[in-house]
Amino acid sequence: MDRDEALALRLLQAEPGASPTIRLYQWKPWAVSLGHHQDTETIDGGRLAVDGFDLVRRPTGGRAIFHAEELTYCVVMEAGRKSILQVYNSISEALVRGLQLFGVEVALQKSQPRFAELYRQPSSIPCFTSSARYEIEWQGRKLVGSAQRRYADGVQDVVLQHGSILCGPAHRRLVDYLAVDGSGVREQIRKEMESKTVDLAEITGQGVDVRRLAQCIRRGFEEAWGVSFQQLTAVGGGI
Question: Would you list the domain boundaries of the chain?
């Protein structure tokens, strides 16, 4: 994710060779990423370390994600005159097309939660207990979680957006690492994660070929945006 931010800053500064970029990658070891402004005290880092998992902070916003059995996407692009929601929608439409090519029909969330109220609740610690507008769902359950950040120099805005496409159920293990009081609260959050999220393995009834998924997502962006990627590189775990 440091590499993702570096790509955004290079594009903002119009460095030679800088260009809009899409990266797709997985995590080894698995890790929890916190949103840019999220309190580290919400996660039991000690227990994560004992189990061999990392804790990192994203340059983008949003809430905690356990990067396990998922495909992370990164989009770096110039915002132009598009608002935050317009960019979200544009990226989501490309992801929807990619998932369609993978054989899954999904929909975009149309409503927007009241984040000021939502973030006061312990159940808001994980990203996947709620859906924001234009996030991707399957039969009302969240499949893709996304977060965005903008960088500006007074001349242009550059968008960095991260997202997690759930491939299996391991993301729900995040509940085990939440620093919450009482087993009742933990079990409530666990039930919310189970009822509000879905993964591609559950939808398709089979294991996910992540490389094929990555190829479909790439083609989805090309078809939705009318672009052609110059190359598909594998750097630092990228697919």
Answer: 2-225
